[in-house]
Description:
heterodimer; A: alpha+beta; four-stranded mixed β-sheet; B: alpha/beta; four-stranded parallel β-sheet; 41% helix; globular
Amino acid sequence: xxxxxxxxxxxxxxxxxxxxxxxxxxxxxxxxxxxxxxxxxxxxxxxxxxxxxxxxxxxxxxxxxxxxxxxxxxxxxxxxxxxxxxxxxxxxxxxxxxxxxxxxxxxxxxxxxxxxxxxxxxxxxxxxxxxxxxxxxxxxxxxxxxxxxxxxxxx
Amino acid sequence: xxxxxxxxxxxxxxxxxxxxxxxxxxxxxxxxxxxxxxxxxxxxxxxxxxxxxxxxxxxxxxxxxxxxxxxxxxxxxxxxxxxxxxxxxxxxxxxxxxxxxxxxxxxxxxxxxxxxxxxxxxxxxxxxxxxxxxxxxxxxxxxxxxxxxxxxxxxxxxxxxxxxxxxxxxxxxxxxxxxxxxxxxxxxxxxxxxxxxxxxxxxxxxxxxxxxxxxxxxxxxxxxxxxxxxxxxxxxxxxxxxxxxxxxxxxxxxxxxxxxxxxxxxxxxxxxxxxxxxxxxxxxxxxxxxxxxxxxxxxxxxxxxxxxxxxxxxxxxxxxxxxxxxxxxxxxxxxxxxxxxxxxxxxxxxxxxxxxxxxxxxxxxxxxxxxxxxxxxxxxxxxxxxxxxxxxxxxxxxxxxxxxxxxxxxxxxxxxxxxxxxxxxxxxxxxxxxxxxxxx
Lengths: 155, 440
C-alpha cells in the first residue's frame, strides 16, 4: 500500500519541476482528509518539500479546495445562464427542501453539502448537477428526491 | 447543415476505443506527419488557415512558427493543451474529449512533432471528471504503443476550479502549481511559457482539428468555410432551443440555421428575444440580428465574435437586467483579484444592476453602470474584466428601453416571470475571500 508521501513523489516525477505537483497533491490530500485541514496541508507540504503556508496560499485560490469541513457528499447545482434558463434555481430549491439545508450549508449529520456552482460546461444538457464530482444531466426538480435517496442509501 | 471533421465517425462508432479509431484510419495522419520535417507540418497548418478555437482566433500555424529553434533557445519545448473549458455557454471541448479522445491525442502528438516537443500537458478543468476518465483510459490503451507515442510523454493535469485558468498565462501559472493569476505579456508563451521555456498553448478543438488537416491536406481543409474562418467549428447550442447540444458546422453557416434548423427553434411556441453568440464574453445579438454568418468577419461586422462558440438562445420572457446580474456575478466570482478595475469594477457592476432590478436605481446610475464598464475596458492584464464589461454594456446598448423601464417604473417589468429571476450565484456563497466588517 503506497503512502500519501510516496504518491506525491510519483506525481512530482511527472513534471519538469516539483511545483507542478501542487494541485494534484492538494487534491489527493483533500480526498484523504475530507477537506484541507491544517494536518492535510502539513502532509501536503512535507511531501512536496515546501511550507504549509505555500499550500494554503495556493489552495485558497481554487473553488474545488475546501479549507473548512464539508459533507461526505458534495452536491453542486450549476446556476449559470444556460442552466438557469431551464430551471436550475428550482432544482437548487428542491435540493434545499429535500436536504433541509440552505444552499452553501451542510446537513446536520455531516453527510451532504449543497452549493450552487458556476458553469460546469454542460450547458446543452441543463440543468447540470455535479454529485460527488460526477455530472447528472437534464436534472429536473422531480429528480431531486431520488438523487438524495441514492446518496443517503449509499452512505 | 452539419459537417463532420473533428467529430467524424463518432456517430457510428465508439471512438473512445483505440481499435475502433484505428479501424477508421486513426493515427495514420500522425505517421504521415512524422514522415515530414517539422516545418512541413507547420506549412500544412499555414495552408489550412486554421485559427485557434479557444476564442482568440490566432492562426495556429503562425503560433507554432513562433517557437524558437533548439539552437536559438536550449530549453525544452512544451505543448500545453488548454482543456479548461469554463466559458458559460460552451461545452464543445467536453464532448470532443469524451467522444474522440484518440483524435485529440493524435493531434497532441502531431503538434508535438511540429514544435519539436516531447512533453505534453493537457490542463483539464477540475470539474471534468468524465473527460478526464476518458482521456486517462485512452492513454492507458496507448501505454504499450511506442509506435504511436514515439517517446512523447502526455500528462493529464487537473485544474481545481477557476475560470481564469482558461487564460493561457494564468493556466501556465496554475500548471506551475501557483494561484492562477495572469502574467504580463509580452513575453508570450511561445518565447517564455511553462517554466520560462518555449511553450505552445492550444485549445482542445484546435488540436483535434490537426489530424484531419494533415490527413486531407491544408489546402483541402481551407476549401471548407469562408474567408478568415476556414473549416468547421463545433458549436455549443443551449438555452431556449428545442434541441440543445453540440453541432459541428461549416464556418459561415447562418446563425438563424443554428437556432432554428439545428436547435429546432424556441420551445413552447415562444419568441426569440436575444442570442449570446460565442459564450458569455461576447456582445449579445437581438432576435432581428441573427441573419448573419457564423464566422469571424460576419460577426465582427456586428461588433461581436464566435468566441468559444457557445450559442445561448433567450426567449421573450427573459429580463436583460437579470441577465446582466447573473453574468456580472459570474465575472465578479471569477476575477482573480490581481487588477483593481476588474476586481472592484465587476462588484460595482453587480451592485448597480441589483439596484436597477430592485427598482431603486436613479437615472444617473444607468450612466454610472456604463461608466464603470468603460473604466474596466483596456485597463487590465487579461480580458476577464473587459469581457464582463463589454457583455453587460451590450445588454444596455441593445435593450436600452428595457433598462430605462426599470428606472422609470421603479420596478422590474418581468419579475418572476423571467427564468433568470432571483437565481442564486456562487458569489453570494463566497467563503474564500471573506469581506471584513468595517466598524462604523
